[in-house]
Amino acid sequence: MVHGVEWAAQGPGGEPESSDSMRAFGAVVRALREHAGVSREEFGALVHLSRHSVASIELGRRLADQRFVELAEEATGGTGAVRGAFQHMARQPGLAAWFRTWARLEREAVSLDTYECRILPGLLQSEAYVRAAFSNNIPVVGDEEMEEQVRARMERQQLMRERLGTSFSFIIDEAVLRSRLGGPAVMSDALDCVLTCAAARNVQVQIMPMAFEAHACLAGPLRLLETEDGRRYAYAEGQQHGRLIADVKEVVTLGQRYATLRSQALPPGDSKDLLRQIRGAL
To answer: What residues are paired with 170 via a beta bridge?
Structure first.
């Protein structure tokens, strides 16, 4: 069984550029569908997706998951070709830019949950905080590359302003908020940014206090999302790699961890009060 799909960092800045394996998998699906004499619309009904979503998979723009593979396998005659192509794709270390794939999924999300224990979540960062974070990268990057990274991060934050129907949940360890990354002025501005974002009706920010006795996400940072068609994904990252998780059982387990952590963290109102307290102490 494929438990998830993982990409090792390959290209500049830790993001491989190639998505050839996704396009190759999509080409296999398309060839099998056309050989079966089934239109995209008809195929979509068989795999519980829209015609547009089928096209996205066939063109290598959208990640297929295990459910799609099994339904597509059945819809194309049960030869094992779809399953085999997917397993081969999942083993490719550079099949796609590991974070860019997640960023594309974010734009389809109806809910997005984020837990962070190292740094403020990217969607909540002020520009000065973004610069401070990237300036700590080793090896040091040039000015031009730095500006590209900052621009990409700030453009990604448009998601918060454009997806007003999306539910955003953030849980942040208190220690992250009490850090002085970039200095007191940068951190003060960053906390103001978090408070501004938290004021939106579709955004919920919670703090996991340092004096905890139970913590459901000690294994590290976690992101979860659900798309409009009910598909759920998770994402985790380390020093030099990211892992996009599509396996249903694994995503359910991680969802249970996040749900438990929400009950362990301070309520949103108390979290805002603590944020203001920390902000005032800088």
So the answer is: 114, 205
Tell me the β-bridge partners of 249.
none
Question: What confidence tens digit (pLDDT) does each residue in 151-189 have?
Answer: 888 888 989 999 999 999 999 999 999 999 999 999 999
Residue 42, pLDDT above cutoff 60: yes
pLDDT for the residue 95? 35
Distance between CA 25 and CA 20 in Å, rounded? 9
109 beta partners:
227
Q: Of 231, 200, 235, 249, nearest to 116 (Cα)?
A: 235
Reading across the β-sheet that carries 241-245, which strands appear in turn?
5-8, 241-245, 232-237, 222-227, 109-116, 167-173, 203-208
Query: What SS3 state is found at 237?
Result: strand
Distance CA 30, CA 35 (A): 8
Cα angle for residues 161, 167, 168 (degrees, 5° grid): 75
* Residue closest to 117 by CA, chosen among 236, 225, 14, 204: 236
- Measure the CA–CA gap between 127 and 10, rounded to whole angstroms: 26
Nearest 10 degrees: Cα torsion 13, 98, 244, 29:
-170
187: Cα within 13 Å, side-chain hemisphere: 18
pLDDT band at 132 (very low <50, low <70, confident <90, very high): very high
Q: Quick one: angle between helices 81-90 and 66-75, nearest 10?
A: 150
Closest CA to 245 of 32, 110, 63, 122: 63
